[in-house]
Fold this protein.
Amino acid sequence: MLGPLVNAAAIVVCGLIGCFVIRGIPPRFEEIVKKAIGVSVMFVGIKGALENQMVLLLIFSMVIGAVIGEAVNIDKQMNRLGLWAERKLGFGGDSGGTEGGRSFSKAFVSAGILFCTGSMAIVGSMQSGLQGNHEILFAKSILDGAISAVFGASMGIGAAFSAIPVLIYESAITLTSQAVRDILTPEIIREMGAVGSLLVAAIGFNFLGIKEIKVANLIPAIFIPWVYLGIRGFFGF
């Protein structure tokens, strides 16, 4: 559990630094930094997605995951969670107005999705659970910390609280990896990571402000390769 804990701590600390130390950066700097992060995140996501070796599985995973996510409306539920946390913690509303409320929820959801999806979160958590090796999550902590600081400065303290779903998500993968280590193969990890990386690319696209994609509703797609390849391996076809 050391890897997920360090990752979450880096997000909290850097998010608070961004919110209270480097906040109030001029809008033009905020805009160009977000665009730069968006382009970089798209590159990282596409690069990871290119490791896929089963294109049809990736496509079907995205489609099936989208249907499941849209039916559950994960994006709406995550926004509700962000607004609930905002009210309980006293942010937005009387403290920061309607715009402040939207900022908290947007930072919480955007940062949470970005930090949870992608090959580093999946592979790093699995490596922590299977081998007790936390190197990938430690490297991810540095990247997430830098992004959390920018989010904190531009969108508020919601970025720091995105550490909560990150800790839950990575801890769940770590503990599950220990429980089902016999059916986790390099093929499953590769395909799950590729789908997750494609979601990361979508997050980068959202940063550019071209067209909003409800990436949260695509999260179930990450787990479709696990289900498919697990069933295929079990029945031997």
